[in-house]
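SAMPLE LOG
Freezer: B-3
Tube label: C17
Construct: single chain, 113 aa
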Amino acid sequence: MKEIEVIINGDKLERVKRILSAFSKSGIFVTQGFGYGHQQGFHQVYTRDDNRGVNMLPKVSVRTVVPDELVDSIVDEMVADMGNATFGDGKIFVREIADAIRVRTNERGDSAL
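STRUCTURE (predicted):
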């Protein structure tokens, strides 16, 4: 099992939900927060003001856990659908999950998803 975490701008949330629901019914967890990446929150606007500080941009983190065989398909679809080759397209993180337990039924592993 793998956890996929996608950090995006909020306007891409519906696209991420659509892609994930097409591949898996295991559910998602969405959190909102603020952050910045390589560009440190600056938009590509050129100005004479060098003292702009760091802008914390609103971001959405979407997490789900899926079987190993779905990870590459999901990641490829997200990159193809959401990538604009511009700053702020987002990041995708993939992590190994040792186990999952459904509390209600005590199912373990992929069947718990």
